[in-house]
Amino acid sequence: MKTGKSVFSRILRAAVIAAAAFIILPLFASAESVPSGKPVTNEAEFLAMDRAGEYYLANDIELTKSYSSTFTGTLNGNGKTITTSVSVFKIFDGTVRDLTITGTVKAASHAGAFAASTNGMTAWNVTNRATVSCSGAAGAGGILGSSRNNAKSIFVGCINYGDVTASAKSGASYAGGIAGCSDTVEMYDCVNYGKITNASNAGQAGGMCGAAGVSAGENDAYLVRCSNFGDVSSKDNAAGMIAKVGISGNVAPRLFTFICCENAGKISGVKYVGGIAGYGYGTFCERIDLKWCINTGTVSGGTSDGGFVSQFFAYCNNAYPIVTGCFGCGELKQSAPTVYRCLFGVSSATASSATASSAIGYRGNYLNGKGTDWFTYALDSANSVNRVSIRKAVELGAVEILEFTDEELKNGTATMFLNRALGYNIFYQDLANGGMPSVRPEAGYVVYDLSVEEDKFINGSEPRLPLPDLGIPVDPASKQEEPEPETTTGTVETEPEPVATDEATTVEEKKNAGCGSAVSFAAAAAVLLFPVILRKKDE
């Protein structure tokens, strides 16, 4: 028989073990969660960092001075916030992740809440809530001001909420939600909510970036699933993504690519104004390539001596762009009678060819005076063969008009139709809150409500169609694994897999594919599948 004393001792030992576990185990868990590198707890420690070191923020800090050396190491924000009145770094050439920035940043040139300039940087999940302004030439950006020396910068999962303003009295000026200007730039899953303004006479303003490829060299732009919800305005070129891409002296082939990008903000400018891109410099092998992009925002522009406005991109120095599976339903406004509302304008210096294919277009088109008048337009009368109206393109069978009402755009009908036409779940929509079609997955999948007899769409938990592989990179420092592609359940009808094509899949293949492949519009109008244009039904 067990004595009372032995029972008591056993209970006491169990209590001691439990107490020890309660104290010790959290210590081990805490040790495992501490980021690698040295901790930074205040401004003094931040300014004293080794330029090539590895650091993490142990708590929120405030800065009154920029880190003055060129930093090439790693800074882990660790989910903490830096409140600052200056750019956090003057020159940042390293890697930053998981950081939030607040405050007010003002500079005479190269103004960025995180970095004034770079020779090449990588940013993972950086959020800016600071207002940024630049009073001189160069760039102003929510995260980066300007790049230098043909730099390549990469931004993944970055968000800007702060207003960005550039106001140079002379010289080139750039304003962007993520970066003011960059040479080669890659952006994945980035979003801008801030108001982007360039008050300079020669200014560029973009929801993501004011300009890309600003230095002569081997410079490209590659944007995937980036969204602009902020208003963008400029006295020159403006766009939801990038206002200007390319420059004379770039080494061909060059490719400026936008995949699953979106603009829902109001875009206003003067010369070249586009929902996605504004102006594209280009020789034969420099090309703008838009795929699965959407514009729902109002685009307006023009001046007394002309201008171009477009749902997608306004103007390029060649006629070799590609627009595939894109959707535009924003209103196009003319600020002057000589503004050309077109799918894209073309250079008067280049014989026009058309390689745009299967683009999905507009709700308000030429029929109600609020949308696209021209398929393509060339300024020089010597290239008048390229002045092809939307009406003429329809007559030639180059454009198909499909009709959606405002109600169909809001109730999910259009989104489901677009996804079915593309063969993938590209567009999403928050039906419960009256949202428009979007590329943001958080908006929600649109599925058919099988519980009702009449046509009705609802937000479902799984996609109706396959999800495309967009190639969005995952932070190597993250312990989270990529989620498996979601599959449909038995309650939702499935669609057949899309037929595979021989389309070039790598960036390099796409660059080379454009060279030597242009076809004249006159010869190709009857055989190429040109943009599908959506219009609002006559109510």
Number of helices: 7
- N/C terminus separation: 92 Å
E-strand count: 49
Rg over CA atoms, rounded to whole Å, is: 26 Å
Helix percent band: 10-25%
How confident is the prediction overall: mean pLDDT?
A: 80
- Secondary-structure content class: mainly beta
Strand content: 35-45%
Structure description:
The chain has 7 helices and 49 strands. The chain is mostly beta strands. The longest helix is centred in the N-terminal third of the chain and has 30 residues, at 4-33. 52% of the residues are buried. The model is unreliable at 24-31, 351-358 and 481-539 (pLDDT under 50). It has a 26-stranded parallel beta sheet that branches. Strands 9-13-18-23-28-33-38-43-44-45 form a 10-stranded mixed beta sheet. It is 12% helix and 36% strand.
Helix and strand arrangement:
Elements: H1 4-33, E1 38-40, H2 43-47, E2 54-57, E3 61-63, E4 67-71, E5 74-76, E6 81-84, E7 89-92, E8 95-107, E9 111-112, E10 115-118, E11 122-128, E12 131-134, E13 138-141, E14 144-147, E15 152-156, E16 159-160, E17 164-166, E18 173-176, E19 179-182, E20 184-188, E21 191-192, E22 196-198, E23 203-206, E24 209-212, E25 221-224, E26 227-228, E27 232-234, E28 237-239, E29 242-245, E30 254-259, E31 262-263, E32 267-268, E33 272-274, E34 277-280, E35 286-291, E36 294-295, E37 299-301, E38 307-310, E39 313-316, E40 322-324, E41 327-328, E42 332-334, E43 339-346, E44 374-378, E45 388-389, H3 390-395, E46 400-404, H4 406-410, H5 413-422, E47 445-448, E48 457-460, H6 507-513, H7 521-524, E49 532-536
Parallel strand pairs: 1-2, 2-5, 3-6, 4-7, 5-8, 6-8, 7-10, 8-11, 8-12, 9-13, 10-14, 11-15, 11-16, 12-17, 13-18, 14-19, 15-20, 16-21, 17-22, 18-23, 19-24, 20-25, 21-26, 22-27, 23-28, 24-29, 25-30, 26-31, 27-32, 28-33, 29-34, 30-35, 31-36, 32-37, 33-38, 34-39, 35-40, 36-41, 37-42, 38-43, ...
Antiparallel strand pairs: 44-45, 47-48
